[in-house]
Amino acid sequence: MCHIFLVFGITGSLSVYLGKYILIGIFSEDFIESNLFWIVRLLLIFPLYQFLLIIIGTIFGEFKYFWAIEKKILSRLRILKSPPS
After folding, report:
1. Residues 61, 3: contact at Cβ < 8 Å?
2. In a domain, 81, yes or no
3. Rounded-to-integer distance, Cα 32 and Cα 63, Å
4. What are the tens digits of pLDDT across the range 5-63?
5. Enclosing domain of residue 19
6. pLDDT value at position 84?
7. Residue 84, domain member (yes or no)
8. pTM, full prediction
9. What's the domain count of the chain?
10. SS3 for 85?
């Protein structure tokens, strides 16, 4: 159970940290000064978090658990078809 909390903590921190540098890489450092930066950053963090959750979860040996969470989130967003009941 401790691994799961650790994965969530690392993934959240890493997605926020990497989101800034990905945007700087795509745009420029001047983009940080604009108000649009925060909107785009928030929109980037969500998919980045989902992607990192699977990667970090796999590193900690919890792939099945986090893949089940991913499937649930993606089906609620109607990106993935929900399995028939």
Report:
1. yes
2. no
3. 35
4. 999 999 999 999 999 889 888 888 788 888 888 899 899 999 999 999 999 999 999 99
5. 2-76
6. 55
7. no
8. 0.81
9. 1
10. coil
